[in-house]
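Structure first, sequence second, as always.
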């Protein structure tokens, strides 16, 4: 696959939650610009959606010269907005020269857990078909004084809700059916291949076994990959699977017990000889919550930090007795 990602910008920000400081990635594929959180698999997913939007425009609206701005998230409660506006709206108002994409374009803001590509493509098609309406609404909005402007520049929610509920047409279906490999094949084509994105599904492939499919998921939260041992695949922040590439076995779904809010897991180390993967997350109050995955047994050991504490206490008792 050709090198399609033209540029990206990382902006470090802090959210008001138990999560870590994280980054937002802004990139573009031709005239389709995208932005979203960089954590776990989100950067690859946002990139895939931008790629599909660009393919949709090239296939069905080749004369379109307008920029497209995608601002993507993962809200539990779906939210969506469509307008003709600047990239990230007022975010760069005081630094226009630093705005990643200058000028106006079709701005799509969408945050939901599932069927994200389908929803974005439906909104994009509506925006392309109703571009004069979007431009007029934008002109009217910015002609008003700041205090007189509505809270949001967007097509009304009832209209957009109906757009998303409508049956998916053949044009959108044909684009959704395109296979988009993780990270577009730009970096480490074997190590980073892992899965491809198609029809809003994630199809995991064994690059040691002729790219055979071993798992299909509707969403992916994070992957901890150990090249020789296999991959821990988190479907959500508290559930997942392990695929052993050596034995070509897929585990049953496992669940992280009493999972606390945290942005993502950290892969701390691996032991190829003992067939173990070590990872953890930080619970701001209890410290690091640690795990060991036994790759040959397809078994997750939890509460490792508690075992460590007990071991230390016992060893200290032994030393004081001596």
């Amino acid at each position: 696959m050709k090198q399609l990602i033209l540029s990206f910008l990382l902006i470090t920000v802090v959210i008001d939650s138990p999560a870590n400081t994280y980054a937002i990635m802004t990139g573009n594929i031709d005239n389709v610009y995208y932005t979203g959180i960089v954590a776990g698999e989100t950067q690859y997913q946002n990139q895939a959606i931008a790629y599909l939007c660009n393919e949709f425009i090239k296939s069905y609206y080749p004369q379109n010269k307008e920029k497209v701005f995608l601002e993507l998230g993962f809200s539990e409660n779906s939210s969506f907005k469509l307008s003709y506006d600047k990239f990230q709206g007022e975010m760069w108002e005081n630094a226009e020269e630093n705005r990643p994409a200058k000028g106006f374009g079709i701005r799509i803001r969408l945050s939901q857990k599932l069927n994200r590509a389908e929803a974005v493509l439906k909104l994009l098609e509506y925006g392309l078909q109703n571009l004069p309406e979007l431009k007029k609404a934008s002109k009217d909005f910015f002609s008003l004084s700041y205090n007189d402007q509505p809270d949001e520049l967007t097509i009304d929610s009832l209209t957009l809700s109906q757009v998303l509920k409508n049956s998916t047409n053949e044009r959108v279906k044909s684009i959704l059916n395109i296979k988009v490999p993780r990270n577009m094949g730009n970096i480490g084509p074997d190590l980073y291949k892992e899965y491809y994105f198609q029809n809003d599904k994630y199809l995991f492939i064994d690059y040691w076994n002729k790219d055979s499919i071993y798992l299909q998921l509707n969403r992916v939260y994070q992957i901890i990959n150990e090249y020789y041992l296999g991959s821990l695949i988190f479907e959500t922040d508290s559930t997942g699977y392990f695929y052993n590439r050596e034995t070509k076995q897929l585990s049953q779904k496992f669940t992280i017990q009493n999972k606390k809010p945290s942005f993502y897991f950290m892969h701390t180390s691996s032991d190829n000889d003992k067939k173990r993967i070590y990872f953890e997350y930080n619970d701001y109050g209890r410290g690091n919550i640690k795990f060991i995955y036994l790759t040959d047994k397809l078994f997750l050991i939890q509460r490792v930090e508690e075992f460590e504490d007990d071991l230390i206490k016992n060893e200290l008792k032994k030393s004081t007795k001596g």
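Margin note: Confidence is low (pLDDT under 50) at residues 1-21.
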